[in-house]
């Protein structure tokens, strides 16, 4: 019988206030399973402010600190400094912020935390818009998507600009560990959490977090949609350790993006040309990842007898691995 | 007892060292910067065992202190002017989350135009954020006030943040001998922070949360009640400080020659020292004047001001900032405090020292002379009545 790799312990309780099919709720649940009870989570204004339920109740089995929307990076720097000063070295310090709170208003604070080398885990749960305020575009909203501030009417075709590449920004800070996670792949998710838990230094997760009301799909389709996102190359799963990239969910053949796009009302207006454009971007994204993985892991040169073994290549810095310096 | 020659900024750093702060958040801004520089040296040399977090903004500096305090650490940071304004949102968080902390603020003018001189507009515009505010007049008082502030804010009945201000350059960069108490004596006055934080590892808890109108008002009222306990508690803390360290700080309003005075001038910060000298001069020429230093602006010492008003015919209030559309901030508070008392004194608002303008004995003599002849409410922009000095400064 297969060994169950996901801890049984629940640190997120039923009775929470998430919508049915909420991706961010699944993300928190799996995250805490992997981290365990000696964890403090700092949460800015976001859906999770509400999901955790109002005073005097809480949906989390760990300590939670609310913080201002733009300050999560600084908050976890403060928690870590206090934990170290108070001899709580084993405390898992986690920031859990949305895409707006991270890639928009919280970007400076995130950059500060990463650059300082804060020993903490920053999680960006990416539901690709300001969902708590009712679906306004963020820099993480995909190109062409409908939101309430990027309408589809007349000439307007949703969001004009491409999605901000938060992983590239994070990797430019050379964190010890960064990964993309998707609750539709729970074993991969928890394995990455456990791996991050054992690392010292700044760590970052980019978590796919589907939102039925904001993305306009049926709430029983969240897991299926997440699978499609990864299988179609929209949200590939990989990790980067000390600059070395490794794909953790390998696909021989990408699924067409059309199925993914068609399932969501926010892309319903897409013309065949627009679908084709997303298809090409997915292909390019996947090829780029494969190339970066190859560049980070060159085949080892066979040692020649009599000669000292070739020294291991130093891990390339993230910028080099990205080929974007 | 050791005398050290310290600037006001040096006194802030010495006090943070003596308080054995555990987490420091540092971001530079003139004229505060030498505080965090001094602390960096202390941490680097091992003289102070603290986590020194080099943040990327004042906003993050305050968040670092907030989160560290929430977990139970004693924290320190310092800022000025624009930096304090950037912290504004988080100032509310600190009082609302009941995270005790002390923040050094070097009072500096607010842009535009850029100006780094002494001016209280930065802290006065934060008066409604739930922070206790101290306005010391000397480097000695800066050190003593920071130490008493830690004891005060960490009291379980208070649990509020406090800012200890200094006038830019007049204190921050001016050196004078400061009696620095020995660490063991300070330890007896200020034991380690009681780490009974709400946020603890392994404990199910939430600090901040969200509420509807049902609970929200209750939380706000708790902050207000804690603020109401500050002045009685400060009296206890200052008595203890006098007993252990041997210096009397004098409470929120420190009068000088106010008995039988016809006119009393209320001051904040460094103008207090000058005013005391002017009072002596005027007294020696037979003018019945006095002064009172407003050491604590939040909570406002309403009772102490009323007490003073009982025996005085005219009160002048010297503000080093202005509230557009109203009076000087301290003048407004004094008037409000005196409303409804029997036969109240007149209150005149004087503005002086704006943007670092020097406030010398002649300037304060003019203020007293105006006060003795007129009950006009003001505000009077005293700096504009000395055009010669404008040329000298320009």
Descriptive report:
The complex is a heterodimer of chains A (325) and B (394). Chain A is 36% helix and 14% strand. By secondary structure, chain A is of the alpha/beta class. Chain A has a single domain, classed as Rossmann fold (3-Layer(aba) Sandwich). In chain A, the strands form 2 sheets. Chain A has an 8-stranded mixed sheet with strand order 2-1-3-4-8-7-9-10, sandwiched between helices. Chain A has a two-stranded antiparallel sheet with strand order 5-6. In chain A, helix 2 links the parallel strand 1 and strand 2. In chain A, helix 1 crosses helix 7 and helix 3 runs parallel beside helix 5. The C terminus of chain A is likely disordered. Chain B has 394 residues and is an alpha/beta fold. Chain B has 2 domains: 235 residues, Thiamin diphosphate (ThDP)-binding fold, Pyr/PP domains (Rossmann fold, 3-Layer(aba) Sandwich); 141 residues, Rossmann fold. In chain B, strands 3-2-4-5-7-6-13 form a 7-stranded mixed sheet, with helices on both faces. Chain B has a 6-stranded mixed sheet with strand order 10-12-11-14-15-16, with helices on both faces. Chain B has a two-stranded antiparallel ribbon with strand order 1-8. In chain B, strand 11, helix 10 and strand 12 form a beta-alpha-beta unit. In chain B, helix 1 packs across helix 2. The N and C termini of chain B lie far apart (44 Å). At the A-B interface, strand 1, strand 2, helix 3 and helix 5 of A face strand 3, helix 3, helix 5 and strand 9 of B.
């Amino acid at each position: 019988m297969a060994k169950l790799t996901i801890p049984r312990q629940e640190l997120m309780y039923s009775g929470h206030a998430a919508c049915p099919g909420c991706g961010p709720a699944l993300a928190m649940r799996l995250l805490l399973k992997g981290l365990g009870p000696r964890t403090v989570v700092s949460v800015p204004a976001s859906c999770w402010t509400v999901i955790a339920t109002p005073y005097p109740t809480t949906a989390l089995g760990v300590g939670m600190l609310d913080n201002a929307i733009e300050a999560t990076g600084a908050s976890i720097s403060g928690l870590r400094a206090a934990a170290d000063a108070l001899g709580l070295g084993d405390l898992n310090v986690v920031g859990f912020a949305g895409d707006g709170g991270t890639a928009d208003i919280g970007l400076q604070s995130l950059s500060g935390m990463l650059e300082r080398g804060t020993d903490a885990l920053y999680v960006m749960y990416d539901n690709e818009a300001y969902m708590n305020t009712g679906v306004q575009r963020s820099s993480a909203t995909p190109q062409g998507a409908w939101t309430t501030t990027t309408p589809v009417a007349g000439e307007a075709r949703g969001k004009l600009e491409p999605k901000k590449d938060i992983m590239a920004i994070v990797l430019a800070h050379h964190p010890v560990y960064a990964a993309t996670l998707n609750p539709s792949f729970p074993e991969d998710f928890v394995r990455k959490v456990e791996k991050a838990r054992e690392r010292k230094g700044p760590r970052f997760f980019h978590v796919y977090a589907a939102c039925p009301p904001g993305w306009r799909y049926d709430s029983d389709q969240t897991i299926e949609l997440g699978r499609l996102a990864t299988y179609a190359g929209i949200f590939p799963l990989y990790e980067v350790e000390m600059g070395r990239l490794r794909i953790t969910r390998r696909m021989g053949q990408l699924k067409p993006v059309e199925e993914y796009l068609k399932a969501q009302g926010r892309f319903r207006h897409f013309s065949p040309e627009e679908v084709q454009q997303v298809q090409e971007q997915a292909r390019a994204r996947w090829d780029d990842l494969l190339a970066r993985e190859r560049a980070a892991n060159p085949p080892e040169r066979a040692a020649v007898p009599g000669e000292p073994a070739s020294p291991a290549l130093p891990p390339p810095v993230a910028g080099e691995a990205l080929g974007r310096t | 007892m050791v005398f050290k020659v310290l600037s006001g900024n040096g006194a802030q750093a010495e006090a943070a060292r003596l308080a054995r702060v555990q987490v420091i958040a540092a971001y530079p801004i003139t004229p505060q910067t030498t505080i965090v520089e001094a602390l960096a040296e202390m941490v680097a040399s091992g003289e102070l065992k603290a986590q020194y977090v080099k943040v990327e903004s004042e906003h993050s500096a305050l968040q670092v202190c907030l989160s560290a305090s929430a977990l139970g650490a004693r924290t320190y940071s310092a800022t000025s002017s624009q930096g304090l304004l950037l912290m504004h949102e988080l100032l509310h968080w600190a009082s609302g989350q009941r995270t005790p902390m002390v923040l050094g603020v070097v009072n500096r003018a607010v842009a535009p135009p850029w100006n780094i001189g002494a001016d209280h507009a930065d802290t006065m515009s934060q008066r409604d954020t739930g922070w206790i505010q101290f306005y010391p007049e000397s480097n000695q008082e800066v050190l003593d006030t920071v130490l008493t502030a830690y004891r005060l804010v960490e009291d379980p009945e208070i649990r509020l943040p406090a800012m200890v201000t200094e006038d830019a350059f007049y204190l921050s960069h001016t050196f004078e001998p400061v009696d620095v108490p020995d660490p063991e004596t300070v330890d007896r006055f200020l034991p380690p922070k009681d780490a009974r934080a709400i946020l603890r590892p392994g404990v199910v808890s939430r600090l901040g949360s969200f509420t509807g109108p049902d609970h929200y008002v209750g939380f706000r009222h708790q902050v207000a009640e804690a603020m109401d306990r500050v002045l009685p508690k400060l009296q206890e803390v200052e008595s203890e400080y006098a007993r252990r360290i041997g210096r009397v700080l004098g409470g929120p309003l420190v009068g000088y020659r106010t008995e039988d005075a016809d006119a009393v001038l209320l001051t904040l910060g460094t103008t207090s020292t000058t005013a005391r000298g002017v009072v002596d001069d005027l007294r020696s020429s037979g003018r019945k004047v006095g002064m009172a230093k407003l050491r604590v602006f939040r909570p406002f010492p309403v009772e102490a001001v009323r007490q003073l008003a009982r025996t005085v015919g005219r009160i002048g209030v010297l503000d080093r900032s202005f509230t557009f559309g109203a009076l000087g901030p301290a003048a407004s508070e004094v008037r409000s405090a005196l409303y409804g008392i029997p036969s109240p004194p007149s209150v005149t608002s004087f503005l002086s020292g704006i943007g670092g303008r020097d406030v010398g004995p002649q300037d304060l003599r003019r203020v007293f002379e105006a006060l003795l002849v007129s009950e006009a409410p003001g505000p009077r922009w005293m700096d504009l009545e000395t055009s010669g000095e404008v040329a000298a400064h320009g």
